[in-house]
Amino acid sequence: MMSFTLRNLLGRSISLSNKCSVRSFRCGQVMLSATNLKGRHLLTLKDFNGEEIKQLLWTSADLKMRIKDKGEALPLLQGKSIAMIFEKRSTRTRISTETGFALLGGHPCFLTTQDIHLGINESRKDTARVLSGMTDLILARVYKHSELQQLAEDGSVPVINGLSELYHPIQILADYLTLQEHFGSLTGLTVTWIGDGNNVLHSFMLSAPKLGMHLRVATPKGFEPDATVTTFAKSLSEKCGTKMFFTNDPLEAASGANVLVTDTWVSMGQEEEKAERLKAFHGYQITMKTGQYAAPNWIFLHCLPRKPEEVDDEVFYSPKSLVFQEAENRKWTIMGAMVSILTDYTPKRSKPKF
Fold first, then answer.
1. Contact (CB, 8 A) for 261 and 302
2. What is the H or E stretch that residue 200 is in?
3. CA torsion 122→124→126→129, rounded to 10°?
4. How far, in Å, are 50, 191, 204 from residue 240 at the CA level?
5. Are residues 124 and 270 located together in one domain of the fold?
6. Which pLDDT tens digit goes with each residue over 254-267?
């Protein structure tokens, strides 16, 4: 077994141990085996190269085909359990993980801050060690990304990021599966983000170039993505030969886009900023007028929950909108991630074209 250390985005060291070996560098990422993700943490897609992301998507598509389309029973996680820590409430993350893990034969344990002593009567370090002795996997939806890093460092089982203030990797996997299903391939697509420079955008920025996708970003002044993320993402895009463009003009960003994406303008914990944010985001609502600047085949994505000021009903409920397919794919992609991390599963269907 080979062990080595990388520096994550915040400058902290992360140790990767795996049966696979270092082969080469691709788009600024260490190239690991694309077929064995067992035992890996999923804290950010920054830690995964393009082939590994494709592997996750391939496994997700395979499970969806076998279970949903063919009606097969696949108890791949029988006898296993997952601790689901939720500091922030959720619809899609909870339901997709809970039902998905159960569908695969495992036992999900839903835990809020009222259910366990997380950082109050018991340190996070001790909680991580206790949960590691009782479960096979931890998914945590938290406010601070550092809490996920601490769980990963102090525990002995893999940790999945269910959402943090920096990243939302499991949402982006669902977005990519949706685009793969709709367009047949991801390579060459132009994704336009119109909205806040938040965790979902960060995850796009750190993964889209690895899949050969171009990214155009429009945010109001003062609401740009994290500067450190931006610097790394621009470098990644250059190495991968893709384009990444930033502006404060939503219509300029929409030019030539195959995909228009937005998200909530007021996230949990930002309620006191609502009035200021709504004023700053005036003119950022996605409408059919926005679509006139995009490519003829443009579609719309939103991770939900959605507010009308972010996208009007005409777009949201139109054939251009894939938001409910996207929401369902949260289930299949988290299942793909959990199976990949906990087992040696090999997809049965042929590998999709990426």
1. yes
2. helix 199-205
3. 140
4. 10, 16, 14
5. no
6. 999 999 999 998 87
> What pTM did the predictor assign?
0.90
Q: Give yes or no for a contact between 57 and 349, defined as CB atoms under 8 angstroms apart.
A: no
Burial class of residue 308, CB neighbours in 10 A (0-12, 13-18, 19+): exposed
DSSP state of 351: P
Three-state DSSP state, 313 = helix
Tokens of 136: 């096979």
Whether 198 and 261 map to the same domain: the answer is yes
Return the active site residues: 303
Q: Is 223 helix (H, G, I), strand (E, B) or coil?
A: coil
Q: Specify if 160 maps to a domain.
A: yes
**Bridge partners of 30?**
25
Q: Does residue 101 sit in the same domain as residue 115? A: yes
Inter-residue contact 299 to 258 (CB < 8 Å): yes
Helix runs in 84-184, H state only: 92-103, 124-134, 145-154, 169-183
User: If DSSP states are collapsed to H, E and C, what string results for 44-91?
Assistant: CHHHCCHHHHHHHHHHHHHHHHHHHHCCCCCCCCCCCEEEEEECCCCC
- Three-state DSSP at 185 gives coil
Closest CA relative to residue 6, chosen from 22, 37, 53, 156? 22
Place of tokens 């206790």: 130
**pLDDT tens track for 143-180:** 999 999 999 999 999 999 999 999 999 999 999 999 99
What is the number of domains present in the chain? Answer: 3
Q: Cα separations (Å) of 346 from 1, 56, 78, 101, 300?
A: 21, 11, 17, 18, 32
Query: Rounded to whole angstroms, how far apart are CA atoms 287 and 14?
Result: 42
Regarding whether 210 and 151 lie in a shared domain, the answer is no
Phi, psi angles (nearest 5°) of residue 314: -60, -40
Q: Which of 338, 330, 346, 343 is closest to 137 using CA atoms?
A: 338
For residues 256 and 26, give the distance between their C-alpha atoms in angstroms, rounded to a whole number. 27
